[in-house]
Design goal:
The chain has 291 residues and is an alpha+beta fold. It is built from six helices and eleven strands.
Amino acid sequence: MVDIQLRSRHRPSDADIVSPGACRVAMVVEYDGTAYSGWQRQANAPSVQQCLEEAVTALTGETIPVIGCSRTDAGVHALGLVCHMDTRSRIPPDRLPYALNTKLPWDIRVRSAKAAPPGFHARYSTCAKVYRYTFYNSRQMCAIGRQYAAHVPKKMDDDRVLQAAGDLLGTKDFRAFAASGNVSKTTVRTMYAVQLRREGDQVVFRVMGDGFLYNMVRIIAGTLSEIGTGKRPSECIREAVETGSRLCLGMTAPACGLMLERVLYEGDEEIISKLFDPEQSGVLYFGSGKE
């Protein structure tokens, strides 16, 4: 069992009080981000949030916001993005996925829905997030699944990649890992666990942290791919943390390989052990003595 305790810093305020007659519903959404500008509604481009809000209006007649746990960039996918809405609909929460999916495009699915506990906020109650990045490590790119992986034609050294990824673990200033345009108040984050698995020609990198900066996971992924192919020294991640210099790091990997896999809240510790089993190879986690 991984000894990580999930504790939310969110302290419910008046903004979290649901108006009489309404119910706050928490939903888990899966989507293929290929055709979208990201999660957040945009003025001149299609977004996942817009599609969901339009589906809610078509189903219930309500024009209400759907609040997501975080934003995702254009082209990034999600297996388990969490969002919430305050609805007066009489449709039971557990029936909403079936009803909403009839109004949504094929590349967006509501996987589950339930009445949220008091004070819950999809974004502010978040304790940790798990992202997965997939490389297709073969001389030729695949035809099927190409929209979910980044092509790395040169053979990657998996052991070298995992060793370098271990330098991410802990509470550190990750300012070197933020793309220009980052608006976070602080660049200090805690990375709890990393994992690297090879599945045939696919190399899957997974990371869990209490939060991520703008393009942070894609910068990590691009750097790891260059470390794995010998283009960049394995010490570059440690040097980037120590110096804060983006120049120590590699390219920003393509959006297509990135997926928001899980969003974790208080009480979700068992999920961590399932995703990052410390008894299996290819897993390192903070506080275990393995980092």
